[in-house]
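[SOLVED] Need 3D model of a two-part complex

Original post:
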Amino acid sequence: DQQVKQNSPSLSVQEGRISILNCDYTNSMFDYFLWYKKYPAEGPTFLISISSIKDKNEDGRFTVFLNKSAKHLSLHIVPSQPGDSAVYFCAAILTSGTYKYIFGTGTRLKVLA
Amino acid sequence: DAGITQSPRHKVTETGTPVTLRCHQTENHRYMYWYRQDPGHGLRLIHYSYGVKDTDKGEVSDGYSVSRSKTEDFLLTLESATSSQTSVYFCAISQGDGNTIYFGEGSWLTVV
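Solution:
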């Protein structure tokens, strides 16, 4: 049972435009969410996170939105750059529980120059 | 970069042989994790540890065992490797206070 889902395996966006990556979760007890970026042959690296007490967190070109009622979060990248081309994973955790970080299946973003 | 070292980084082994992957951290983080990454499945948690000698199962623990005798080391063992365990394995660490999780560079395992 996949508790964290990324339903779009891939996404292509023109350089300079907005990239929107989506993530859905099923466990309403999750209270902290993270996005990771992964380049080939490297480990995932942290990008941005959001607590369930917020609905938006912004860091430069990256913004994460959380809709708790819909159990949905999204990552917006504006403007998209060719260096953003990577696989993006969302993750969820129950911070009062066992600290098991559950990851989604990933979305491969390709930013076209 | 978080101080996480995985070894070996690449290994080819035969079906039925035991394999141990090692994760070493220099950050003194309480939590350590083993994930595997496979196409179409993303990152799946195999086992994790919340302290020395304290471990628990993740989403895909069958066929794997772990041990943590020291804070800095977390070992993943495939007792009898199968072709379905061909994958990229990532170790990760966390302070366990809701902060981020940091990943190692990965270990590529091929079971032939």
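Edit: Residues 40 and 86 of chain A are 8 Å apart (CA to CA).
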